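Slide 14.
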Amino acid sequence: MRFAVSTPSNLRGEESGYRVFDYVDGRILACPRVGSQRAEIDNIIQKFCYVKRKCVAQDPCDCENLIRDGSDYMFIGKSNGLIEVVKDFQFKVNNCIELIPNYILVCQQPRSQLNYTADISMVGLEYKDGLLYCSTCYGDLFIFALNLPSDYEQMQDMGYSQVRSDVFDSFAGRGKSQFYSAEELAFVLHSQYTGRTRLKHICHFLIPAHSDVMSRLPELRERIPCFQETIYANLKKNVSHFHINPLDSFSVLTVAPRTPLSVHKIRLPKLFVDFFIAILTLKTQVMASRQEQIWNLGAACRENFGQDLFEYLKQDSLNRIDYECDPHMWASLIANNGIAELSAFSVWRQKQGHMKDELHDLFNSKLPNSGEKLPMELFSASDTERSLGHGGLTNLHSLGSSSLRREVFARAIDAPKRENAQEKFLRSVRRNTFPVDFKIVETSSNTRVPSGELSDEQDGDDNVTSFFTDNYKDMDIVLLDKFLVLAAFRPKYIDEPAMKVDSFRSFKAAELSTDKESPEVTYTRQKLQNFSAFKKLFMINDSLCLIFDTRGVILLDRFKLRNCKDLLSNCTSSLKLIDYNIGLTNDIALIVKEIKICETCSDCWNDQSIVFEVIVTSVNGEISVLEGWFFQHLRIGKMHLKDKIQINKKHKFVDQIVLLDPDDDQVRQRKRVALQTSDFSKKFHKS
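Slide 15: predicted structure.
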């Protein structure tokens, strides 16, 4: 397999970059580093996004071919707000060609948003259906419309080798069945792939921003075309993890610590769509007369038509933009040089407040050997007072009118009630979440859903919104929390977890183990106590959850769970684990090599064996490849180290991983290269 790893520096004034590796025959080999490989000072790589055609060999594109594009593209998001686009990435790696970007995408905040620093913190960089989304931790969304064929897709953090690909293709073929509004349909139709020529490149739909980049980054002297985003939106909440809605290209899902899982929708105004179409028409006219790359669209418009860009669009009889129908949007387009600042609103949010869950039962149940509830002293005086005055001073300061202040002081304030303080305390506990990952899966219609998971879907009709059409009836969101919690949601029907597992180590092995239990079950109970912090979630299919912890791996079949309080009372195939000290990790990538399902036993619930490999970047600067096995009819699997290398420079560390090619056979066919010892040294080698 082939993968790339970012190598940031933790010292100012030092270079940060990335390296490409091949893993062949049990060894990690670093591909030759050609040139600087875009290593920059004080600008670290925060996210990768590798896009290529599905199931098609990647060949350099012939610019005169008007039909197909055989190139692959690597998008490299950096902390300075620039996204470098490297075309024919693997071809350049194989032939030792310097990985200089062909284009640069610029994440520019509109003038209405205060920007106190030039750096941004990217938490997501994803591509789907011609749109590249870049999300920051502050809820900024930068959306770029790209000129790519419909069969291009992003390589995920989970790949497969020698396994049928459709096992992993969640929502395969479903993206085209989404329901478009009139504005969305017009935007999609006019942003379809135009064919590939020298001027109709991947950034053909974007407005040039080279002059803006040169003013911000004068050290960027290369003649590289730069382009600004098509759409900007702010979600008005913090974001730690982000995914594009697989059923709606103009919708995203986000989550963050102490922030509920949410589904957001971006609304496209008619004026923006008309402006987008007019810009494409204008660029086509200008390029037809000049036959060269446009570096400044405003200057080209003045040179060709003698008018400013927006004045020309107002008077252009061909496009007929009705700018008076939305003067606020038109003024925003002018102020932001053509960037559309659009609204994003929440259409679904995870419920974290009043729920009749185990936490509620704990504080409302009677104490053993008494008829009383839990004493009020459990809630401290500060908690009780906080329920009355939380945010009081802040709210008063925020009131701009003295009459409003008098009205607030004149109101009768009730003394805090036990129920109010208790509910506020419970809500605060529920919101003390630390989500580390979530995945979106399509539940097959013939899957057997346990009684605890939406036993009657009709009961959830009251929760249906106009956004969640019948297309969403099989969409599940599986959320992993650092504090050993796994929850599954079906947003079409309910805003509470349809399934929640928080008992991975909520019991004592000595108390629950009995003489009737097998030694394997007792051993599994003991090893579950070692798990302390979940790190990463992979969905092998709609049911199998592969969870990585600092102390091992858990394989959970969520549809086979009948008892979520005592997990080991379920069938063997419902929960398996590997006891292995993985350590503190920065990122993990998974390659599934083999899956076998038992078809001979009648009582094993189609137990499966799985062989997989994982690439791990550790906080101590190591890149490791581990191989793991889960066996049929056994709860305990095993894992061992295949190979490991460590970065030599103490001021650098290894962080983000992106899979380029998980197929071992294709990697073996490439030219073998020796390990470069300038940056990395062999930490371990299998004898």
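Speaker note: The first helix runs from residue 89 to 94.
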